[in-house]
Design a protein that fits this description.
The complex is a heterodimer of chains A (182) and B (255). Chain A is mostly helical and 182 residues long. Chain A has 2 domains: 81 residues, RNA polymerase sigma factor, region 2, helix turn helix motif (Rna Polymerase Sigma Factor, Chain: A), CATH 1.10.1740.10; 100 residues, Arc Repressor Mutant, subunit A (Orthogonal Bundle). Chain A has 9 helices and no strands. By secondary structure, chain B is an alpha+beta fold. Chain B has 2 domains: 72 residues; 115 residues, MucB/RseB, C-terminal domain (Phosphorylase Kinase, domain 1). Chain B contains 9 helices and 7 strands; from the N terminus they run H-H-H-H-H-H-H-E-H-E-E-E-E-E-E-H. In chain B, a hairpin with a 2-residue loop joins strand 2 and strand 3. In chain B, helix 2 crosses helix 3. The longest helix of chain B is centred in the N-terminal third of the chain and has 20 residues. Chain B starts with 5 loop residues before the first helix and ends with a helix. Classes of the chains: A mainly alpha (182), B alpha+beta (255). Chains A and B meet through helix 1, helix 2, helix 3, helix 6 and helix 7 of A and helix 1, helix 3, helix 4 and helix 8 of B.
Chain lengths: 182, 255
Amino acid sequence: MSERRRRFEAQALPHLDAAYNLARRLARPPLDADDIVQDAMLRAFRAFETFRGDNMKPWLLSIVRNCHLTAVGLTRHKLETPLPSDAELDLADRGLIVDDPDPEASAAQTQQGRQLSAIIDRLPHEFREVIVLREMEDMSYRDIAQVTGAPIGTVMSRLARARALLRQAWLATGQEAPHAVH
Amino acid sequence: MPCTEAFRTQAYFDAELDVGAAVEVERHLETCADCASLLSELETTRRLIRDQAPYHRADDVLRRRIADSLGREDGDRPATGRWASARWRFLSGAASGSAATALAAALVLFAVLPPPSSPLVGEVMNAHLRSMMSDHLVDVVSSDRHTVKPWFAGHTDVSPPAVDFADQGYKLVGGRADYVDGHRAAVVVYRHGAHVINVFAWARDGENLPAGATRNGYRFAFWRRGNLNFGAVSDTGPDELATLVRLIQKASGPA
């Protein structure tokens, strides 16, 4: 194994679960999260010389995101079309109200987990990714901006709307929300 | 209408504010019921996601696939890899034509050549011919040394100078990873008029380098610099090859 590959793996592999979790949340059938992550790791390895800094996570996740978009066939142009306003986002029409959880989901998951997962997966792409990056990966606004290529202000507004949508959809399932701990 | 401080409340919740701004928000939260309620909702939503949403982890099958793919990219392949690839190209191209024809012609060419006196001359000539007959002359296309040299660092064991001499008539085309005598070699590819010149560099101590040679219309030059062996080959005239060799030696600094 080359020294270069050793260095790459030492920095990249600790973030492989994060890469896979993001790909799983982004990819819709027939796209396969495994293929996207494998492609992303290879591209990252090839571009390793261009990586600067000591935290590879945002750089690697931005490549995962780009590989997903490439797989989807989205162009940059399409991505820059404005998101619908809150008023236009009708919860029922967007399918955000979940009464039929994914039957293929693992039986080990709780009912709550399945419903929540389905809600997250039905969020529009731009909202879903900020939820994953902030709440599941605990990333800073700056790092999320790097991954998504959006300005920090945009990250903040998407995050606010994503959280509000998610909360509304969750309340609409009639489940009791866990109590906040202060 | 949401409070104008809602964004800052969210940033406070996400620990994105400096101390001064955080104190301001805390003061605001004491008097603004909307923002206090928002803060509580944010906390609830986060707990819900972190406690309940499944986190998908890469399994061993995927880790294995990635290791294999990085290994292939990294050059975990036998020294005959390029030959195996040429054979594959021959077999796969047998039905489709041109690639197979070109390879067959090249094989005939190898068969009728007299054996060169030094095995190294033969090795370099074979590598040169392979690069010419396949679509694999360069792995990285660039006339910029700042692109080619770093590429070598990641794909070969050696990192020879890759300087463009376009002003002197030798244009840097790019770089390639190859094999010479079973050793991984970095190849700097130049174009001089209609001629391609391959300059191989590989690390091996104590190897006896042949003197310059002419074989079957190809010119060869060999030299050593530091811990690197160099071999240049082309179908240019001998003087033209010697000129490039002098340029490269000069660019490499004092011997």
